[in-house]
Amino acid sequence: MSFQVVREYNYAFLDEGSKKEIRRTTLKAIAIPGCQVPFASREMPIGRGWGTGGLQLTLSLIGDNDRLKVIDQGNDDSVNAVSIKRLVENCTNVATTNQSEQATLIQTRHRIPEIPLRKDQILVFQVPLPEPLRRTEPKEEITRRLHAEMEYSSIWLRLYEDIIKWGDITIGADYPCMVHQRYVFNPSPIPRYDLPKLHQANGLYLFGAGREKKIYAVPPYTDVVPLQFEDYPFQVESFEGLMCHLCGSDSSFLDEVYDADSGEKKYQCSDTGYCEARQQERGKVEWNGDL
Amino acid sequence: MGYVAVTGGQRAIEKANQLVDQYRLQDAEKALETNEIQSQLRLLIDRVMGEGGLYAPEYAAIALKQAEGDPAEAAFLLRAYRSTLPRNYYSRLIEPGDMRVIRRISSSFKDIPGGQMLGPTYDYTHRLLNFDMRNEKGAVKEFLERLGLGEKEIENASSSGKFQKVIDLLREQGLMAERTSDDQIPFDITRDKLNFPTTRSARLQLLSRGETGAMTALAYSSMRGYGAVHPTIGELRVGYLEVHIPYPLDDDDSIYIGEILTTEVETINSFTQNDQDDVEFMLGYGMTFGQNEVKAIAMAILERSLETSGSSPTQDEEFVLLHIDSVEANGFVSHLKLPHYTTFQSMLDRIRTAQKEQEKIEVKS
Question: Are B342 and A270 in contact (CB < 8 Å)?
């Protein structure tokens, strides 16, 4: 299989013309933060809706000097992350890593790593539904016009109706935000916990929606503000009083897991790279203690 | 570790990939040869080429073998291969009137110039399971002997000539709108993202790449009452079309690069749908790779339906065009198999908060 990929296909799978086109679209997206820029998305050798947008960004940017990290739900070892890593390894000379600090390029689905991005790092998001206004308007023709006119009353109304009906805003992940006082955007289904990391960050965030054929970006030092009301402020997921049962972290996003044997509820870091590093660190400390 | 659902990814994937091959071959006496797939699963090959958007019968056979016969998976394999190929040429305009026809019918007129020609069709076979298929051995020679035909006669029957188009009869009589040809450079859906409202050339391309079942269902809904279109088939023809590309050194010259089997359908639609208030029939147009008649008819219905305005699903271009693509629909529906546990964690957080809110309200009241 890997043999075939190397022989029959170009470096980084896409032909050079396609890569250039994607990079030009990316530059435009960076120039207009939060604006969804259309591009002629290519069919990729992984499922449409399984990260093809992110993958096209990654492959259009990647070169021999890069180091790649791929996570799915924060997890380096999740099957889809592994599958994407294998594909990139098969068609480039790039080595992968689990440590976010060692990576130049990180492709992610539904999480931002716990350790903040540096200015020489790019985080590529896989985006299922790029259009924040799709929650209230199914037609693309109309949502494009609403963005052009900055007409966002329908999404505000949707939040207001949530509060009236349920007592609070019910949007869990993929929480709509205002980018630099201009475009409302979907940050991809990252938890609300990750949203503050987008605001005035050091690194570059790129968003690729393959099926919906759009690229958008949050460049460094850009304002990203979740939609909220004065009396109903934006809230992140609460993990108060909980900690990771593996690394002991009490300040990371935790997944709720159930022990296969005992059925007991436990919590563990969703960012496995971060958790692993902390476990090693802790192991060292404990070992030294024993000496 | 108690939680093992999605860890150990690397090894799990390797084993799963091995299992695919194992299941594909474990009960086989001998592996299927791709040339047998290509020659005997003709209609499946045609369908997969159409939905994959790549006319390559041999590659379609490889894809079908690799995908254990799943047409969606095979179309996806072709599409993902095709997307890596550079776009070197656009062909010269192809005139379906010049088709080397193997089948051609009209539902509008009993007698048409050149005559009706049934050709290879299941339409009038009785759908009785043919148990003799179990014992079918050998190939074309025995078959011909059984029918008492020589190879020559078969060849003659499958290479009939050109026929005048039925629709042209109506045009000559002023019953069908005479439209001037539009020399605009067509939109290329593989090179540009669609914006809405889109152009007719983009619509036709998307429809001809659409998924057969999805298009048939939508066209059926239009005929049954959720829409305006219930046409008469002016002509359905299946046959071979020659493809030429411009000669690179001299633009006036052309090079013949081969022929493609296609199905073309032209439907006749009520003059009440005429948007220019002329009392003339309106044309619906469908064309697919290979022999895929139901899809070509469905395409002609949907294409016409999208030219009319109204509130039924098949009159909504975004609704039709964005949901009939096999690769995209299959991909997104099946992506639900991916883990969603951080998103789900956010949902848990919201439902617990909302429950607390509800309890507060209940206590108050």
Answer: yes
- A47·B339 Cβ contact <8 A: no
Q: Domain boundaries in chain A? A: 16-226, 239-291
The verdict on residue B329 lying in a domain is no
Are B187 and B205 a contacting pair, CB within 8 Å? Answer: yes
Nearest residue of A to residue B359 by CA position? A167
Chain mean pLDDT for chain A: 92
| Spatial distance between the Cα atoms of B243 and B160, rounded to a whole number of angstroms | 18
Q: Which SS3 state, helix, strand or coil, does residue B355 take? A: helix
The torsion region of residue A73 among left (phi > 0), alpha (psi -120 to 50) and beta comes to left
Closest CA to B284 of B271, B272, B299, B274: B299
Domain that holds residue B62: 10-82
- Mean pLDDT (chain B) is 88
| Residue ranges of B 8-67 with Cβ closer than 8 A to chain A | 8-10, 12-13, 17
- ipTM given for this complex: 0.79
Mean pLDDT of A177-203: 97
Nearest to A19 by CA among A4, A7, A9: A9
What are the C-alpha distances in Å from A199 to residues A116, A219, A254? Answer: 11, 10, 22
Which chain B positions have a beta carbon within 8 Å of A269's beta carbon? none
Long-range CB pairs of A135-141 (<8 Å, 24+ gap) are A135/A176, A138/B318, A139/B196, A139/B316, A139/B318, A140/B195, A140/B196, A140/B318, A140/B322, A141/B196, A141/B197, A141/B318
Lowest mean pLDDT across A62-76, A230-244, B101-115: B101-115
Residue B348 lies in a domain: no
Q: Please give the model's pTM, rounded to 2 decimal places.
A: 0.85
Which residues on adjacent β-strands are paired with residue B103?
B238
Cis check: omega of the bond before A233, within 30 degrees of 0: no
Query: pLDDT tens-digit profile of A40-52?
Result: 999 999 999 899 9
Nearest to A256 among B9, B84, B348 (CB): B348
What is the distance between the alpha carbons of residues B114 and B265, in angstroms, rounded to a whole number?
Answer: 17
Question: Quick one: DSSP state of residue B51?
Answer: H
**Domain annotation covers residue B359:** no
**Catalytic machinery residues of A:** 34, 244, 247, 269, 275
Does residue B73 sit in the same domain as residue B184? no
Asked if the A16-226 domain carries CATH number 3.40.50.11310, the reply is yes
Q: Tell if the CB–CB gap between B358 and A173 is shorter than 8 Å.
A: no
What total number of domains does chain B contain?
2
B119 and B241 within one domain: yes
| pLDDT above 90: residue B356 | no
Is B83–A42 a contact, with Cβ atoms under 8 angstroms apart? yes
